Amino acid sequence: MKKEDDMAKQDTSRPARAAGAPDPSRRSLLRGTLAAGGAVAAGLMAGRARAAAPVTSVTPDPLITEVQDWNRYLGGGVDTAPYGLPSEFEADVVRRNVAWLTADTTSSINFTPLHALDGIITPNGVCFERHHGGAAEIDPAQHRLMIHGLVDKPLVFTMADLMRFPRVNRVFFLECAANSGMEWRGSQLNGCQFTHGMIHNVMYTGVPLRLLLEEAGVKPSGKWILAEGADASGMTRSIPLEKALDDCLVAFKMNGEALRAEQGYPVRLVVPGWEGNMWVKWLRRLEVGDKPWQQREETSKYTDLLPTGKARRFTWMMDVKSVITNPSPQAPLSHGKGRTVVTGLAWSGAGTIKRVDVTLDGGRNWHAARIDGPSLDKSLHRFYYEFDWDGSELLLQSRAMDEMGYVQPTKNALRTSRGENSIYHNNGIQTWRVQADGVTENVEVS
Amino acid sequence: MLKFPKAFPMGAATAFAVLFTLSTPVLAAEGAGKSGIERPEGGYGLGREALPEEIDAWDIDIRPDGTGLPEGRGTVAEGEVLFTDNCAMCHGDFGEGVGRWPVLAGGQDTLTNERPEKTIGSYWPFLSTVYDYVRRAMPFGNAKSLTNDNVYAITAYLLYLNDIVTDEDFELSKANFTDIHLPNEANFIDDDRYEEPHWKADAAPCMTDCKPDPVKVTMRARILDVTPDGEGDAIE
Fold this sequence. Notes:
The structure holds two protein chains of two kinds. By secondary structure, chain A is α+β, with helices and mostly antiparallel strands.
């Protein structure tokens, strides 16, 4: 009987929590956090609240003194989940979208749950999605990649052809130029998933674009390439040839497995350090030309309007930036005073991160954070700052410096230069206010 | 030249030519060194030659100088009918946008306002982008279904909705296309981010007593929370 129940619980469908499996600890903790004044929608908070269980009991812990179901009955067999999914207790660690931002989910965005991740690699299933005509599903056998224009020999490749070129493995962050774009006019969205979640960091396996262009033979007059997607939006961007020959990849694997459909399966462009929109998914065409094409995504969009009425175009580089992912509004500091770990992410389109500073008092005094894990070119860096929290209010910020020596600016410095209508490239310093009860919110400070 | 590496992606094609003449040898050496890939003599011999018909089928991009424009023509009056049937349910009869669907017309002289309205007439620099984009991506959900003449007519109608042409009998064609300039063309500038005062290479940021007074909260996000009825800027 009992065993059957347990087997029934091995449900592989992701968000479903096993029916009839009460979890009183989870419920009471959730209630506790909400009572503590959590301002964010309950759905966003649920999982993090669970993780924040304070052990206050002085009587023997029944979790230790009593045999639990999982100590006695068998777990799932090796055929339970041919493609493994996270534990059911992680069901709230998902991409989320904000419905009112766009007219329709097929031309929209969702956000990476940064507050629930650690290390530098983003798991494939939670890499944020941005597409302009839905996520195309393309049979690799029916996919073609064409190179033409100012080349000696226009070529068509099948996926099988691409797999016969030498490949490389590189870890790069991809950040949407509009990441943090909602915050130009002031703090707006409560959660680093929403303020900073248009980013992911993945190891790509692919062919250097240089090898494909060399195979076609770029004519000396060739200065630009146009990359085009096979999806319903026919996404296009002009990319200077020099970038294409430098470090761009035509990638078919992410974190070791095939690209996910929403990330451009079977093949996408990788344009390290530059805005995510240029990383054309479902890549089907590369045209070599002598001038940029002035496509919709480099004129109407992805241009940065200044207070003068002028707009910057071809602002490709993603500048030095960082954010504290814990604590943050979706991951409050509910353990009370004492040892506390602050952690976050830092990155720069110009290369590696050489330093991250953290402040607890809104920028009066800064402390060097500890960068841990691989420090790779144009990749996310993980930082930690450990300290003894005295339980008083915190105004947390992080400030990154990249290998070029560029320092992440304040949001107000950016506003002074750019006004509040440039939408893209907001790399300003983020402030989280942690109250004495641990509730954390997105604020701006003096 | 201090800012050279950071300024790598400056916008002007000319600036590129200069920059990359300097940097290409370094990048090339680095590229080979990093990957250790030696290109075989005569190349890889992979893929096959693209046929002219195949290139014609996919090469639908148009440049501001008119490169790529197909033969064809269409009038404002024809465009109005096509737009009403295929586009107005989302973009509105006059391009004013239904609900959160994009606005295509109006907004002239709003770019310096607190809430600028960026449309073909108020913001877009080139007409070629309109033809190119409508042909490749619209109508949303049935892309690449319009004929070349249809797209000329709809483009003419979008010019009319934006007061750039005023005659309903105006006919747009390959022949007169590049004569038309959009009003905001001159207002796009190259990327000069790195001339902003806060970009200082090798700056030594302040570590202690950086602000004279205790820091105060000036704005809280919970006022504008993540709720379906919240107000916010549409994402671009």
